[in-house]
Model the fold of this input.
Amino acid sequence: MKKLLVLFIISIVLFSSGLLCAFENFKAVQDSVVEHTLKNGLRIIILPRREVPVVSLATYADVGSVNETKGITGLAHIFEHMAFKGTTSIGTKDIKKEIKAMDRLDDAYLSLKDPLKRKQGSGEQADAMRVAKLEKEFEEAEKDASSFVIDNQFGQIVQEAGGVGLNAWTSADATVYHYSLPSNKLELWMSLESDRFLNPVLRDFYKEKRVIMEERRMGESNPIGKLIEEFLAMAYKAHPYGEPTIGHMSDLETITRQEAQRFFNTYYVPSNLVIGIAGDVDPKEVMGLAETYFGRIPAKPRPEPVETVEPPQQGERREVMEEESQPIIVIGYHKGSATDKDAAVFSAIADIMSNGRTSRLYRSLVRDKKVATMVGGLSNEPGKKYPGLFIFYGFPAPGRTNQEVEEAIDEQTVKLKTELVDEATLRKAKTRARADLLRELSSNMGMATTLTEYEAVTGDWRNLFKELDQIDAVTAEDIKRVANECFVKRNKTVAAIEKSKEPE
Done:
C-alpha cells in the first residue's frame, strides 16, 4: 500500500507539473499568493492550488558558498548534508549519550588534526607512532558515536508519509531544501522542517566530510569541472564568487564540527529563511501551523550581506589547460546582478544568442560554419545575488579548434555591438521569455522555489511577475548599448581545454 501511495503521489505531481492549474495568466497567480512574516522574521509565501491533494514545500536558506571565508570553504554544502542527519529527537537511539560520544569524537579529531596540520604547514616530521595512535583513538570514538545513530530516519519518516522528491542543493547564493507531500501531511512537514533548523544535530559529521571529499575528488578528475573552477578563480580576484561551492580539499580536510555549528548559528536564523508552499492548502491553516512550529525558533539578527566588491577588470585574462579530453572554450564577461537595471537586456541577449536551433550561435557555429558541435550562453553565473558573469561556451567540431570557435563567437558579439537586432527576432525572444515563465507557473515545486528565490535575491517575490514587463520594455537599442559596454576585451576572461601535446 505504501508503494502504491508513493506511485499515486508521483503521478499526481507529474500531472500537475504539466498544467497551469486553472491559472491562465500571471495576474491570476499573483493575486492568489499570500505572504506572512513571523515575529522572528521568517517569511512564508503561499500559493493555494486546490485541484489535487498535493503540496510542494521549499525552504530557501539565503546562504551559499559566497558567504564563506578564506580557509573555511565548503561549509554551506556541508550543512546541506547535515540537515538530513536528523535532530535531537530524530535519528538517535539516546541523544544524551550520543552528544557525549560526539564530544569525545571532536576531541579525538582535534588531537589528530594538530600534528598533521603542523606537518603540512612547517614540513616537520610528525611522529608516525603518535599519529597512528591518534588515528586509532579517532576511529574508536567515531565507531562509538555511530552506535547511537538511526540511519536515514528523517528520510524514512518522509517516505512513509507519501513524500516524494526529498532533496536539497547548494549554490553560490543559497541552500534550498524541498519535497512534496499529500496535503493532509502539512503539519508533519511543519514539525519536521522546523525541528531540523531548531534542534539540528551534526551527527556523522566526519563520515559525511569524507563523502564530500570524495565528491571533490570526482570533480577534480573531471576536466570540465576543473576548467570551470580555474575559470571562476581567474575571473574573480576579490569577490567570493571565485571560490568553489564544494570547497577546497585542504579546507574540507580540516573543518571541524564546531566550525560548522558556528556557521549554522550565524546563517540559519529565521530572518534568513524563506519558505515557499504551493498546492492544496488553506493559507489560514498554513499561517497558524507556522506560528506554532516555526514561531518557536528564537529570533536572531539577520547576517550582513557580502561587502566585497569585485573591482573592474582592466585587461583580458586567459588560461589554457592541457588534458586528454574533449576540447572546450569558455568565455566570460562581468555584468551586474539580477537586480541590475539591465538584467532583462542580458536575458534577451542570452535568448537571441543561444536559445535553441534558431539562435544566432547555433545557426552560425554549428549549422553553417560547422566549427562547433555544441555552443551556448548563460546570463547569470555563478550567481544572481551579486554581480556575475555572462558566459559563452563551445565545443569544437572534429578537426576544428577552440580558436576558431572563439573567433566565431566574437563575430556574433561584434554583430550585436554594430547592428540593431531586427524586430522579429526581438519579438520571438520576448515570446519565449513569457513561455519560460509560464512553465515555471505550471509546477507547484517550480513556483515554491521560484517565489522564494525572488523574495531572497530581489527583496520581493512580486518581482517575478514584473519581469515580463521588464522584458517587454527591452529595445534593440538597449541590446546594442549593453553589448558595447559588456563584450569588450578588457572585460573578457577565457579558459580552454586543449588536448595534451605529444612530446617532440
Observations:
- The radius of gyration is 25 Å.
